[in-house]
Amino acid sequence: MLNVNERLVASTILETLGRNGSSDVEDLYKSMQKLYGGLERRSFDETLMQLEIQGLIHVYNMAREKRRIELARG
Fold first, then answer.
1. CA-to-CA distance for 2 and 11, rounded, in angstroms?
2. For residue 44, what are the domain limits?
3. Beta strands in the chain (DSSP E)
4. End-to-end CA distance of the chain
5. What is the pLDDT of residues 36-69, one digit of tens each?
6. Is residue 61 within 8 Å of 69, Cβ to Cβ?
7. How far apart are CA 15 and CA 3, in angstroms?
8. Domain count, the chain
9. Residue 22 and residue 57: Cα distance in Å, rounded?
């Protein structure tokens, strides 16, 4: 599989959330998969975690193992 540049993925996540406001994590992952076919789920989740640690996004747990992601208000 391709090794996708994590910075590029992070930038695309932030751009997508900037346009849409928020997203279901699964839907966002599927969108990133279409753009970056070599993106592994573990790498995607690690990128989300780094963005959340940096205070750029918030990930919320919803019902039935669903997660919602949105840009942090700052």
1. 18
2. 6-71
3. 22-24, 57-61, 67-71
4. 37
5. 888 899 999 999 999 999 999 999 998 888 999 9
6. no
7. 21
8. 1
9. 10
